[in-house]
Amino acid sequence: SYAENRTVKDPQLTEDVSVLHKAGANTQGILQYLRERTGKKTTRRDVHNMVQRHKTAEQAGLTDAQRAFAVMEEFCRQHGGNSADILVDSDTNVARVATFQSARMKRLFKAFPEVILVDSTHNTNVNRYKLFCFVVHDVFGKVSM
After folding, report:
1. Is the pLDDT of residue 1 over 70?
2. Pfam families, per this entry (predicted)?
């Protein structure tokens, strides 16, 4: 089927999709809602594209730092056990450390605290530096990097 036959152009339905997404509805639920309302054979990819267009428009005027905070906040909202934190140097107002843990990561670490797995398969900048460091907490609360 052609994209113009599947695409939802009604602004009210587009707004409904963004509200449903913010409320936590999954792609399949949004897809079913659109098909019932429009009668079109909208695909999951069409729904994904609508959500992405809304996110892009929502973040259009934000700085990189604001977008990073928004991503971290969304990560935490996705699951109650997820957590994220950004440590900012108070003198320079520069972010020094960004950490995030999914609920699954926490559960696995609690079960196997002596195991560390680091995946650095992707180069992170033009100089091909791996941008990570280890922060180790011992049983006495001492922290070392």
Report:
1. no
2. ZSWIM1-3_RNaseH-like (PF21056)
